[in-house]
Specification:
By secondary structure, the protein is mainly beta. It contains no helices and ten strands. Helix content is 0%, strand content 72%.
Length: 138
């Protein structure tokens, strides 16, 4: 059975320390797959002048993650009101980062997470990510 194709809308708000918040929007085409009873959203991020980044989002309200491979390597694990170790890399260097999940919501058609990223004991920023997706009807 073929994975359902979906239209993906991504909105992220990034607040770096002592900086104004930045809002980014991305539209993509993707698909929903199911593995071992878990649902995953897969889509490609095509950013101008950058290699394509393949993004996988585990859609779960209690134990989720975002994994990106390509021009950026990243794995961000999320668990509500918990801190977990993730990774971030650009090129050959990959570093551990601490992911502090403030809120996490997942329901059919929407995934939302608010979190802080820390590296070497320093806060890198506060992030709010909302992904909405809807099945493509032919």
């Amino acid at each position: 059975m073929e994975a359902p194709k979906v239209d993906v809308q991504l909105r992220s708000v990034i607040q770096h320390p002592s900086q104004p918040a930045e809002t980014h929007h991305l539209q993509a085409s993707g698909e929903i797959i199911e593995k071992k009873g878990q649902h995953y959203l897969l889509f490609d991020e095509k950013l101008e002048g950058m290699p394509t980044v393949r993004t996988t989002v585990k859609l779960h309200a209690e134990d989720a993650f975002i994994m990106r491979k390509g021009g950026v390597q990243m794995r961000l694990p999320f668990r509500p009101n918990d801190s977990r170790i993730g990774t971030y890399g650009n090129g050959p260097a990959i570093m551990d980062i601490l992911v502090v999940t403030k809120s996490l919501h997942s329901m059919p058609g929407q995934f939302a997470v608010a979190y802080e990223l820390h590296a070497n004991g320093t806060i890198l920023g506060n992030y709010e990510l909302t992904i909405t997706y809807s099945e493509v009807t032919q």
